[in-house]
Write a structure and sequence with these properties.
Elements: H1 2-16, H2 28-44, H3 55-68, H4 82-87, H5 90-116, H6 122-125, H7 129-149, H8 154-181, H9 183-190
Helix pairs in contact: 1-3, 2-3, 5-7, 8-9
Length: 191
């Protein structure tokens, strides 16, 4: 997996190390055009509207444009490009704050739902955004933030990171196993 994605990591690293002071010399309208094209690329990539082979490259280059953009917080808000102003809005900043937790939670949820509902359509899976967001927000508040703010002992870290999720998913797995062994109980409780 890593060698196949190495080029994506390299693009991100190059964008992160880019000297943004050189962007200050570019006209604001040019910077704004680049960021709007990048926003379009990030918006279209997950929709399947781009050629399949180019989607990862367009998504990476679009993200790199934002990483390398001149989004200096000390700069007057009105002088920032419109795309940067939108991304600096409080709702999107909140989404950015929980994005890593959301990234971690979305895949187990999708995998679990795919196991119990293999015929789910992409549209029906949109309903999973709310539980994924809630779990991400809780994870950030109860796990990520406390870990960053103070030192946590090894025992508590193991409990929060391994034992608790293991018990939760183990219970869900056992419930599914029981459901598969006795489907008539499920039908009786639903009707």
């Amino acid at each position: 997996l890593l060698p196949a994605r190495l080029w994506q990591f390299l693009i991100g690293a190059m964008a992160g190390g880019f000297n943004t002071s050189s962007l200050g010399r570019l006209p604001k309208s040019f910077k704004e055009a680049i960021l709007l094209v990048a926003l379009g690329g990030l918006s279209l990539a997950p929709m399947g509207l781009l050629p399949e082979r180019l989607t990862p490259m367009i998504a990476c280059l679009s993200a790199a444009a934002f990483i390398a953009s001149d989004s200096d917080q000390s700069e007057e808000r009105s002088s920032q490009p419109a795309a940067v102003q939108v991304l600096n809005s409080p709702p999107l900043q909140h989404l950015a704050d929980v994005s890593y937790s959301l990234y971690l939670w979305h895949w187990p949820i999708l995998s679990f739902v795919n196991m119990i509902w293999p015929t789910a359509t992409p549209e029906s899976l949109l309903h999973l955004m709310l539980p994924a967001y809630l779990l991400a927000w809780l994870s950030k508040r109860l796990v990520e933030d406390p870990f960053r703010k103070k030192a946590v002992g090894l025992g508590k870290a193991l409990l929060l990171c391994y034992l608790l999720p293991g018990v939760i998913f183990g219970g869900l797995w056992a419930g599914l196993d029981e459901l598969q062994d006795h489907p008539e109980q499920w039908k009786a409780s639903v009707t």
